Amino acid sequence: MKDFFLTDAVKHRGRNIRSHFLVAQKQLRERNDGNGKYLSLTLTDRTGRLDGRVWDNAEILAGKFEQGDFVDVRACVDEFNGKLQLRVMDIVRLELDQIELGDFQRKSARDLDLLWKQLRDTVTSFTDADLRRLVFAFLDDPEIARRYKTAPAAKFMHHAWIGGLLEHVIDLLQFCELAAGHFPLIHRDLLLTGAILHDVGKIYELSWERGFEYTLEGQLIGHISIATRLLEEKTKSLPGFPKHIHTLVEHIILSHHGSLEFGSPKLPMIPEAVLLHYLDDAEAKMLAMREACQPEGLPAPVYIDKVRALERPLVNTRTYMAQAAAKGE
Amino acid sequence: MKDFFLTDAVKHRGRNIRSHFLVAQKQLRERNDGNGKYLSLTLTDRTGRLDGRVWDNAEILAGKFEQGDFVDVRACVDEFNGKLQLRVMDIVRLELDQIELGDFQRKSARDLDLLWKQLRDTVTSFTDADLRRLVFAFLDDPEIARRYKTAPAAKFMHHAWIGGLLEHVIDLLQFCELAAGHFPLIHRDLLLTGAILHDVGKIYELSWERGFEYTLEGQLIGHISIATRLLEEKTKSLPGFPKHIHTLVEHIILSHHGSLEFGSPKLPMIPEAVLLHYLDDAEAKMLAMREACQPEGLPAPVYIDKVRALERPLVNTRTYMAQAAAKGE
Amino acid sequence: MKDFFLTDAVKHRGRNIRSHFLVAQKQLRERNDGNGKYLSLTLTDRTGRLDGRVWDNAEILAGKFEQGDFVDVRACVDEFNGKLQLRVMDIVRLELDQIELGDFQRKSARDLDLLWKQLRDTVTSFTDADLRRLVFAFLDDPEIARRYKTAPAAKFMHHAWIGGLLEHVIDLLQFCELAAGHFPLIHRDLLLTGAILHDVGKIYELSWERGFEYTLEGQLIGHISIATRLLEEKTKSLPGFPKHIHTLVEHIILSHHGSLEFGSPKLPMIPEAVLLHYLDDAEAKMLAMREACQPEGLPAPVYIDKVRALERPLVNTRTYMAQAAAKGE
Amino acid sequence: MKDFFLTDAVKHRGRNIRSHFLVAQKQLRERNDGNGKYLSLTLTDRTGRLDGRVWDNAEILAGKFEQGDFVDVRACVDEFNGKLQLRVMDIVRLELDQIELGDFQRKSARDLDLLWKQLRDTVTSFTDADLRRLVFAFLDDPEIARRYKTAPAAKFMHHAWIGGLLEHVIDLLQFCELAAGHFPLIHRDLLLTGAILHDVGKIYELSWERGFEYTLEGQLIGHISIATRLLEEKTKSLPGFPKHIHTLVEHIILSHHGSLEFGSPKLPMIPEAVLLHYLDDAEAKMLAMREACQPEGLPAPVYIDKVRALERPLVNTRTYMAQAAAKGE
Amino acid sequence: MKDFFLTDAVKHRGRNIRSHFLVAQKQLRERNDGNGKYLSLTLTDRTGRLDGRVWDNAEILAGKFEQGDFVDVRACVDEFNGKLQLRVMDIVRLELDQIELGDFQRKSARDLDLLWKQLRDTVTSFTDADLRRLVFAFLDDPEIARRYKTAPAAKFMHHAWIGGLLEHVIDLLQFCELAAGHFPLIHRDLLLTGAILHDVGKIYELSWERGFEYTLEGQLIGHISIATRLLEEKTKSLPGFPKHIHTLVEHIILSHHGSLEFGSPKLPMIPEAVLLHYLDDAEAKMLAMREACQPEGLPAPVYIDKVRALERPLVNTRTYMAQAAAKGE
Amino acid sequence: MKDFFLTDAVKHRGRNIRSHFLVAQKQLRERNDGNGKYLSLTLTDRTGRLDGRVWDNAEILAGKFEQGDFVDVRACVDEFNGKLQLRVMDIVRLELDQIELGDFQRKSARDLDLLWKQLRDTVTSFTDADLRRLVFAFLDDPEIARRYKTAPAAKFMHHAWIGGLLEHVIDLLQFCELAAGHFPLIHRDLLLTGAILHDVGKIYELSWERGFEYTLEGQLIGHISIATRLLEEKTKSLPGFPKHIHTLVEHIILSHHGSLEFGSPKLPMIPEAVLLHYLDDAEAKMLAMREACQPEGLPAPVYIDKVRALERPLVNTRTYMAQAAAKGE
């Protein structure tokens, strides 16, 4: 891990630093003094972004890297009109094997290989042979497996980190297992299949090689329709796969957002789809609350002004009770 | 149980019957032939309603019972202009101890005393002493206990039968218990308290001595505000009850409908309130689906045209799979 | 064509008729007089539906045909409690080759083979080779061609007749051609591809062998997602088909309803998708107005109380002007 | 009253000032030059807020006051990167009796004791004895009286000043009196009771000892439910208070926001509740317009860009007419 | 007034009647028995509508009156398949001077000439000369005066009777006068002008010569735009009328529905427009409640199931209090 | 054209400039140093706005021009706290004939006289004599003609430039002509009349002598009602103009926004009004997309983050295809 992050720039005001960054923007511009050009940069790491300027040899250096590259930078932390800025003295392009991706992306704190094994074990436990071979057709596809293991679950909202999708699915599977036991109406394997495949389209909707971004395909098609395309591919590859099971799984994927205005082209119309929508939504909201109530490395707050995923303020039950008990209220 | 129900009237067209009914409407009217008056009645039992007419001695009989009374009726099932009608020959008022209430109201198929015991056992298991004494202050109140054991959970929608409220709460408690184990953020006793008290206002919002109706207080105040009034009463009766726990429980009751447009004056703002909303809603919708997919005494359908509580059609996963498998699709 | 239609039943009150019908419902029921069973039927043709009763030999006749069959019926047009009813004297099952489908379904007044040829000619005119081979991959598929030529465009709303989908597409193509000439920004072949494929999923969403119904797949998946599944199939079958063209066509299909609440999981985000939404919507609404303003076989009205597809009343410009001019207003 | 307010800071750029402030935020931070710590403050008075910095003896001074304290400050008005800032030279904690609360809170311009007397006189005029004793049970409660006399009516919107609630109620009562005379259907005392009690929950929903803030109870419960809780308390304290009057008053309080999406759990369903909603809303909006059209100490504008409480721009009838008349339009 | 009304038809079952009716529908149809034609009629008066049949001399009688005519009818009240029907024996067309319009239309119970005088007196009291001459330009226009004195205020909702518009305006004026005294910001004459002219377009939006109907112009243009057209006409006729006053009055008319979705193309943006919207809405809703709580000729109810203009049930405060007091609650 | 525009100020930092500006704001303020007053200005041209300061002789210069004047300015481009500012050394008021309006307003790139001729030629082609003389009554009115030729079509959204209204109408007319040919139901001249007159009210809703602003009349009345007022004027001026044609044209104007919530007081209820709404909306949105996809003087983008008029991101089909083809996707 690198030892300077942009979040700490203010502490280094006026000093020289050296670190790795991702070049988010790069533009060669005319100098106002008429003495040729300068380079205007935006440099990022996993903690933030900062403007940079190359005043000397700008045109030569500009030829040595592109927007989107990782770079090694030597610079001075200046303050210009009240904003911090990196005055770049040297900048060198880096290969992917020269950086630590973790310097640029938040990553799951859990063991992703272990989670992956849990996922596969769950599928092995299916009693419905068709659903089992269907889900394994996904998990045994090397490209899907590779992307599924690392994909974030979102760009901003919940589980926006490397491995977030897998984490979310594992937690959801456990909740589904409990609920399937509670509701005898539910076809357990079908519900779990829905939990594993409902968001699988995110592995192509998002890109996370560098920052977390929507792909152009993701923007135009969306993860729901990408998932149904993958489903079509996989069922085609399975000899004699029953059409009605394809239809049921496709229906769960299409309807899992729960309402048309949230982007599901169909309302949930089978018990497993209705239930999955509730459990998926509850799981995501509970995570958002956990992150708000137990922020990493910070004291737990009593009152949280606005939680984005819930669009409202939040009160932390535990700290509120502790505080009130302490006051003897 | 009586042996003639209104749902079977068509089978008795042209024959005489004798049975108990509830008088839903009663009007003395002028006969068209100028020969005095006749009685126009609406008679109901738990299976439906039918018009009745008393042509002879109408004024004398009219003095012997009131709208809202249970009556013993001898009549002939006539057809008049294509509609069935009871031509009443004799009608006698009944005391409450002469009828079986079950003839007039749908009732839970489960043992309500057993459910009540389960409810109390759950509260006994609370580790939080304040929440435990609060909930017992409700359950130990004889009037609340009596009404809670028999109240329906709704007039129409879900659990619209005697004991429906208790049944709903017992099932919800089990789901809450599972979810509290799954989400460490959750204060288990607070969540369970919410499950037990969120709908307690329904014991005064509805009346079910005869049919299921909203009380006038229910119409003007609503079960949410009735519940917070009961809560105020009970906490006042408990010496030194902590105000912050009152506030948290009141918040859960107020917010359990999940959004303002569904009648909650506050959005859920603590983890237990957010989660209870999901679980309560899911539990009610799953019941509606179970009733639609497994109708009592009827073959399970594949396609259900419109399920009122979900405002959409439904496909029954199990029968759909069985049918498709049979067709070899 | 048969010579008795249900719409004319009132003119035959009290007389005997003989004609072909589709059995929409069939139930064997207990007679009230205790003398065995009778058959309760609902019989339909393209002009309406009527109840039927078989009183004699009901159980024997009941074994000779099923719900969904076409039948030849001899009956008397009775009036019972103010409603017409067919008292059926004889009923015989028919094979498909014994009936004229046109007796049971409204059909396009236009030459569908000619429209099909126009459709293919339009595709031949494409300058974009990839879009041309893509659309022909659909049109050359014998099953798709067969269904596309006869599918209705809707169950109720617009173009709800045999050949309605093809008619709608041909008219829309002409409108698109004009608009593509008017807006230089538009990629003409892509817009026309969208016009041809946007509703292709309806060929499996609906069934029209007998009445017009949604298939179960149609209910659970919807024509938009069926269309993207077909697209996936066809592009897979075309060697080296460019992914970005697949993406653009898929986007147009997904977004053509124009907003999420109308069932499109994506908003139109490319010029061709935005424009197609307007033209498709305008074309459908103009047809609904044409049908309301110029009803077949009826005088053109001035004021139309409520046009379902537009959810409002309508004034017929032409007749309103003629009437006002006649009055000298 | 102090003689320097933050709204005038710009006029004192570069000069030394001394004044009382409320410490809204206080943080001890590391200096960038490595020479220990500095204090970062946000200081407020009733006219605004400004950042402050303590560079010398920061750690010692930091121990002498807390966030939320009132302080006496000597400072120089600096400009740093285009923003004004107080460079604090000395800071001393003040007791409540050393400050004038009026320096920190906007206050009603009217005589609150006189308004309070008017309020009580109105209640004395009630002919309905139950409503009279009910309202006096509130007004005679010393804590309620103390808070009611000073509470603001809102944090931001209308009447956001000390005494604002009482002012709003007095004006509303007068409007209600007029309307009760105009509509014979209306029960005058019930309407006036609604006017006096509808917002009484605000005395605990808000805190205004220092700034105007929501209490945590206010956030979780809201003023509507706080008011119904107080109502329960007061009716319990009145021997033989009729339940139906409790129900009517509670209904008015619950429904006075007029619709569910504005936080009323019940729609107004009695004439007095419907009317009170209109009058209360009109009274609040008229005040917002009066403040916009006749701003204190400023010339009356013709056009007001956006009035927050009305979410639209406004034209001032009087000045518009005067201007147009002057131009001879 | 005629002595038989359709609301009483049931009491005359089987007897002969003679009365005046309005012919709402008239169709000559084929008899089923092949013996020529019969006339199918719908006959109405102010209490309802009933079907009529002419079996003898139908074609001859059909030539003697048209749909929309008033007629004198001799008929027998038959019952056919459970519905009442008039078997017409003779029918004669009536001139307008042969009928009493009051037999066909509900009419105000108040003295319309007196109300008209009150209206004019109010305008005389204006201190603003321009507004005074503007309103008199309307009231002195003989056609406007004639229609304004008799127009209903609506087809169904509130004040749906002859003179309803004038009644509504007079009541509203009184309320406006009170409110103008209460709010010093308000320009009294402008507010009253708004009250008099806001609905003036209804005199052409509706027709009430016979039944209450929308005119075709009313459907296409609406009363708001008709009113602004009349305003344009009148201000054009007044020499040197100030444009800014025209603009203010037009704005009040345009915005009086209060929001775009209720058909106002502009939100109220001046104090008089905002206030008029509240008062007009309150006045209309209070009338609807008065009619529901004090139905003419019926006992006042406690609970009213659904009041159309308010889209909710209603509780009648007075009868509820009386009933509860009687029960000692 | 002047040779310095505000968009280029950054290139002149530290240098002296001289140019024409419009004075958008002007305030005389106290200097902090106690040495009298200074002038605070906001200066604009068609490319942007910048603050200006007059430090010397401020009071004398202040008397020589007003807010809203065009001025000739000599100044130095300073940077103060990181923001550019004009330090004004001299400022002189200009008459309208001394400036080029084009320096202050964006202007159509097309020949407006030619467009005007096309507009008149279209009207000449009308076969309906009444519609022809109606439209010419507008176009022959010198003031209308003058304003119509230069009006922008909007303040911000689409066609926000001099001549934008005329440009929009010409393009729309061509689209209408095509559509009228495609839909035989459509009355071509009525549709074209709608296209020409639907937005004519904008000539008084907006002012564009200097910047683009709403007039006060525009704010209070809106262009739809202004247009119907002009229509009333013009039809009054035409002897014997048929009322029903007035009604139809007025209906098209009123309803062209397509729904109440977008400010149309009536829904489109005739075929021409329904179609015009689609074509007008499509035309405006296509223009917004053209401007986003082909920005003047910039390379065509692939992805556009958010297009304001469409409230969504956009993908540029052409560049996306070119880019993908280049990458061989």
Properties at a glance:
homohexamer, 329 residues, alpha+beta, five-stranded mixed beta barrel, two-stranded antiparallel sheet, 11 helices, 9 strands, 43% helix
Any chance you could write out the topology, listing elements then pairs?
6 copies of one chain form a homohexamer.
Chain A: E1 16-30, E2 37-45, E3 48-54, H1 58-62, E4 70-80, E5 83-94, H2 112-124, H3 129-139, H4 142-150, H5 164-182, H6 188-197, H7 202-205, E6 206-207, E7 213-214, H8 216-237, H9 243-255, H10 271-293, E8 303-307, E9 312-315, H11 317-327
Parallel strand pairs in A: 3-5
Antiparallel strand pairs in A: 1-2, 1-4, 2-3, 4-5, 6-7, 8-9
Rounded to the nearest angstrom, the radius of gyration of chain A is 24 Å
Low-confidence stretches of chain A: none
Task: Give the class of chain A from helix and strand content and strand pairing.
Answer: alpha+beta
Report the span from N to C terminus of chain A: 47 Å
Strand content of chain A: 15-25%
Question: Could you walk me through the main structural features you see in this protein, from its secondary elements to its overall organization?
Answer:
6 copies of one chain form a homohexamer. With 329 residues, chain A is an alpha+beta fold. Chain A has helices at residues 58-62, 112-124, 129-139, 142-150, 164-182, 188-197, 202-205, 216-237, 243-255, 271-293, 317-327; strands spanning 16-30, 37-45, 48-54, 70-80, 83-94, 206-207, 213-214, 303-307, 312-315. A 5-stranded mixed beta barrel of chain A has the order 1-2-3-5-4. In chain A, a hairpin with a 6-residue loop joins strand 1 and strand 2 (37-45). In chain A, helix 6 (188-197) packs across helix 10 (271-293). Chain A is globular. The model of chain A has no long low-confidence stretch (mean pLDDT 90). Chains in contact: A-B, A-C, A-D, A-F, B-C, B-D, B-E, C-E, C-F, D-E, D-F, E-F. The interface between A and B is large, with 45 and 45 residues.
